[in-house]
Amino acid sequence: RPAGVAVEPPHPTDPVGGVTGTAPPPPAPPPAPDGRAVLVEDLSASEGWQAQDPDRARRVLEHGIHSLIVVPLRARGVVLGAAHYWRADGSPPFEAEDVTFAEELGARAAVCIDNARRYTREHTMAVTLQRSLLPSRVPEQSALEVAYRYLPARAGVGGDWFDVIPLSGARVALVVGDVVGHGLHAAATMGRLRTAVHNFSVLDIPPEELLGRVDELVAQIDSDEDAVEGEGRGITGATCLYAVYDPTSGQLAVATAGHPGPAVVHPDGTVGFPRLPVSPPLGLRAGLPGESAELTVPEGSLLVLFTDGLVEARDRDLDVGLAALHHALAGPGRSPEATCATVVEALVPDRPRDDIALLVARTHRLDPTRIAEWQVPRDPAAVGPVRAACVRRIREWGLAQVDFAAELVLSELITNAIHYGSEPITVRLVRDRALICEVSDGSSTSPRLRRAEVTDEGGRGLFLVARFTERWGTRYTPTGKVIWAELALHGGAGPSVEGLAELLLDEAEPLSGEGREQDGSAR
User: Fold this and answer.
1) pLDDT higher than threshold 80 for residue 126
2) Who's near 138: CB < 8 A, 6+ residues apart?
């Protein structure tokens, strides 16, 4: 694409900004084989130059141009293009001294063009990497209506990120984070932190404990990189906010590691910034315990999570940015998508100098009629009545297709709680996108799935739970633990009694041939 400057425009050669191909060649001699400039002192006498493109050569001569220098633009061994210097009217023809000066200008221009080309390529790679590591879509869940924006910095992609993670019990985790620095390293580091948060979220631990584990991971990574010679680009100083919303109670638990706290827009349009315990960025806690804050959020409120690029800039203090955000968020009746658009329009400049991640979620509460709960005495005889009550409620919800599987799962979980747990024992059913079965007790001992031997009389209960549920697990509470399991409401009929017996026999069958023969005789 040619760019040109003329004393008296328009320039008579290639159209500026257009696309110039390699054939037919422009009316200029090719650069010399050794990469040096080519000088044509008198264009009117150069028959070879005129023969390349007679029409264009005629227009050039009619414009009064009479002398030409062609300099190849070379940088790092690559020819990026060519610079054409023309002289017209009363200017004297180019001389050998002008060629040296033109080559110097061409060399400097080539370095600038190559730097811009390399920067553009690296910036494109970083943006591509960043976007590939961010969520491609919001996972399906009933607790929150979510909208988001990610805006990369014009000067260089940073490490801002966000996430929405479904948890057990219909709860949802909202995450935003920021990695110090820009470029590919920041984007790759962001991916490592997002993966770590995802992995730790599976453990169903409190927000402050999760950030504590991420903090230990960051410190370990930095320590390992410092031990390698030439590796000095750690990730200490990254920030993160982790919040868990429970739609059954409206409770929001929030913990932060050096990150700005969320804004809460109440249904009446008032805006608040809840006070959170102060905590240093990731990698700087030095083993100190973290803290979290819990608050009750009214249904229909907006939770607004963001990175500091939205409210802080070189020409704007943090307090000024938070005041502008408060003003942009104020007012009732806006959807999360409309809120994102309003905030971006009010606070984001045309060319942001820092990455910006914005996450807006409207809270929903589960209908109390979709939640059922029973207290269970620590007596094996109580399993039957509680199980029957659970099945009746499941059928009242119109979920008869999963009542057998739910009855089986609840029997195993309640029996385990009575035999190995401690009081109080509670059973809770939640009808959401799946049927959620929860059994809580006062013990902190967690069951473990294992493969039972042929001669074992027990050990197959959790195997059945795992086979007939979409997922199951354990989460700990201040007073004990909760064993939970989710049964899909769609996707085929549940297990039958005949199928159950076959599964148990298959699960007990060893892998070796000798074991299969023994198992066959045992049948």
Assistant:
1) no
2) 146, 148, 164
